[in-house]
Amino acid sequence: MQTDLVAALDIGGTKIAGALVDGHGRILARAQRPTPAQEDGESVMRAVEEVLGELAASPLWTRACALGIGSAGPVDASAGTVSPVNVPGWRDFPLVERVRAVTGDLPVELIGDGVAITAAEHWQGAARGHDNALCMVVSTGVGGGLVLDGRLHPGPTGNAGHIGHISVDLDGDPCPCGARGCVERIASGPNIARRALDGGWRPGPDGDASAAAVAAAARAGDPVAVASFERAARALAAGIAATATLVEIDIAVVGGGVGKAGDVLFAPLRRALAEYATLSFVRGLTVVPARMGTDAGLVGAAAAALARRADPTAAGV
User: Fold this and answer.
1) Helices 296-310 & 113-124 angle (0-180, nearest 10)
2) CA distances from 160 to 12, 66, 101, 243 (A)
3) Containing H/E element for 82?
4) Could you tell me if residue 122 is inside a domain?
5) InterPro entries under this entry (predicted)?
6) Which residues contact 220 (CB under 8 A, 6 or more apart)?
């Protein structure tokens, strides 16, 4: 990585975060606004402009040589547009064009949020030193990204590695994406909680029915909660093994809210992976928790911008 300074945006359904990041991955300035996700597209863009305006007020702004954007998806990096599922006002929204207009035509690199987190984990986190990796976000949804031959592999539109929509149950429940039995339909936080509730688990006196509450119940030995996490773990294992078999990754990094469940998730995940990843070239595959935390989207967006600046022909870190 060069020692250049870049701007970064991390755009999700809850918040729009921005930062100035140096070539060592250090965040030197930051700004944030809530995402007005249920308002019209221009209202969302105004929040982006406010974040950029706050960053531009920093004396460091003039050193920024590029801007990276990690956005909830789908994104289309080839067209510079975004259509986040959780931001209905943005459909084929020309985000790259609009951001360039605000920043004085600063070079912009757009990638999906799962790819951004992958870039961060490969640059500074749990996948550092691995040339072939899958990094996953298991939270409200399930996303991911790939590093192949030492480089980030976002694909033509910026969505490569979207493991959440690999089908692992051919006769499974319909997924909002239109397919059936997707990893996300089984392993995302809301679906872990849904399965536990359907199986008879009930929240405690506080009424918390989240996946985190199911994880706590599983740690306490509740058999229905344990079964829900084991089912999620098997779905993740099947998706990870399929990906490893296809492109020969040697590490899978799991982050996001569900990834914080610890051994409740990782113990059955590793057991199931041993059943699914059976061919000689994937048996050494390891699964580890993510390390980068809440700044991963910003650091990853910066990594992609720095890599593109260093090599305009490839998005690699």
Assistant:
1) 80
2) 18, 23, 28, 11
3) strand 81-82
4) no
5) ATPase_NBD (IPR043129), ROK (IPR000600), ROK_cs (IPR049874)
6) none
Instruction: Identify residue 305 by its one-letter amino acid code.
Output: A
Percent residues over pLDDT 70 in the chain: 97
pLDDT in tens, 263-293: 999 999 999 999 999 999 999 999 999 999 8
- The two counts, helices (H) then strands (E), for the chain are 9, 12
- The percent of residues in the chain predicted with pLDDT above 90, rounded, is 84
Three-state SS for 9?
strand
Find the domain containing 28 and state its range.
5-117+294-310
Residue 123 inside a domain? The answer is no
| pTM confidence score | 0.89
DSSP 144-168: EEEEETTEE---SSS-TT-GGGSBS
Query: What's the number of domains the chain is made of?
Result: 2
Name the packing angle between helices 263-276 and 211-219 (round to 10°): 90
